């Protein structure tokens, strides 16, 4: 996507979307440990143009992850809360660069004073995901496949944690951990509504 | 721990241990996002002395975490694999700075080319922990409290992941996630040997 004449009519939102798409490919291929300037070089966008669309590296990283996540169907339209997370993990297996991006965002979020945008995004993402998985667990409890006396919020947090932690172990040593098989164990312990 | 005359007889290992102890307190109080130089300033050790004991920030961080982890009894001398991890998480609740240190180490480990020492430490730690938890799960299977047809390695990776991921969510929003309660759910699904 070269900068150039005759393209100035393009709306900022389209350019922004192009940058995000190119960055997704870059991160998928090479990982995320690179500066905003290097990202611009790699995808053929001037640093000034990149800064126009994304005031900071954090904002680019967050938008790349958001675009990646939204490009898939809602994993929660599954048979169980675990099944939804397992489907996500299955897709992520092909794109370790984006799993690494997610891990980077979560650690940046912990240093909230230095990364306020990332912290807000990740905190809100966990809140939203816990609320949605909680609903899926309640449905499983109503269907009788998950014990009714478990707190559905505790179960939701547990399922997200398992998926995150397994993907981290897998990134470090892909041959030693099978994310989907370990999540299948959890799914068997917290069965779906239908067989 | 001021630098000073008359202390040169101390063995390097003792000084090193002192630095680690001071760094544990520093991280526990203020988190980890700081340079080796700032760490030296904060604990009253010259940058040169710190560099003598720890060639890089990574080596200090790894040794601080290792010392912290070893200062507790083996969590696996518990009634079940989950119970051991739950006991660890319970202790960690009082020291969020060290949970943050752990999260930082795991993300650094993913950028292995830049953080080879961290990558080796974290990869080995996961290997060791999976092997030990696997043994605990096998014992539970032999006692009949965990289904015999589950792969104990898959279960071990799942338990570590749940503990890691829950502590991450808790660090971001302490009021929204109860690590011990969510791990208690997992413990109920994978019961210990004794009631």
TrEMBL record, chains A, B:
List the Pfam families hit by this protein, alphabetically. Answer: TetR_C_6, TetR_N
Domain spans labelled HTH tetR-type: 13-72
Q: Which residues bind DNA?
A: 35-54
Which UniProt keywords are listed? DNA-binding, Repressor, Transcription, Transcription regulation
User: InterPro entries given for it?
Assistant: BetI_C (IPR039538), Homeodomain-like_sf (IPR009057), HTH-type_TetR-like_transc_reg (IPR050109), HTH_TetR (IPR001647), Tet_transcr_reg_TetR-rel_C_sf (IPR036271)
Give the protein name, as stated in the record. Answer: AcrR family transcriptional regulator
Q: Does the keyword Protein biosynthesis apply?
A: no
Q: What is the organism of origin for this protein?
A: Kineosporia succinea
């Amino acid at each position: 996507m070269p900068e150039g004449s005759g393209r100035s009519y393009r709306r900022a939102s389209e350019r922004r979307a192009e940058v995000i798409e190119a960055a997704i490919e870059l991160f998928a291929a090479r990982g995320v440990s690179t500066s905003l300037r290097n990202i611009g070089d790699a995808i053929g966008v001037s640093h000034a143009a990149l800064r126009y669309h994304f005031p900071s590296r954090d904002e680019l990283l967050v938008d790349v992850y958001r675009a990646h996540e939204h490009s898939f169907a809602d994993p929660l339209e599954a048979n169980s809360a675990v099944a939804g997370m397992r489907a996500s993990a299955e897709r992520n297996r092909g794109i370790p660069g984006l799993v690494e991006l997610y891990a980077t965002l979560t650690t940046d979020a912990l240093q909230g004073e230095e990364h306020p945008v990332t912290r807000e995004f990740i905190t809100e993402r966990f809140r939203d995901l816990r609320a949605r998985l909680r609903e899926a667990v309640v449905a499983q409890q109503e269907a009788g496949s998950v014990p009714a006396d478990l707190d559905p919020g505790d179960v939701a947090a547990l399922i997200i944690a398992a998926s995150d932690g397994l993907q981290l172990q897998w990134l470090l040593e892909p041959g030693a951990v099978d994310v989907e098989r370990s999540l299948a164990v959890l799914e068997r312990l917290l069965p779906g509504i239908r067989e």
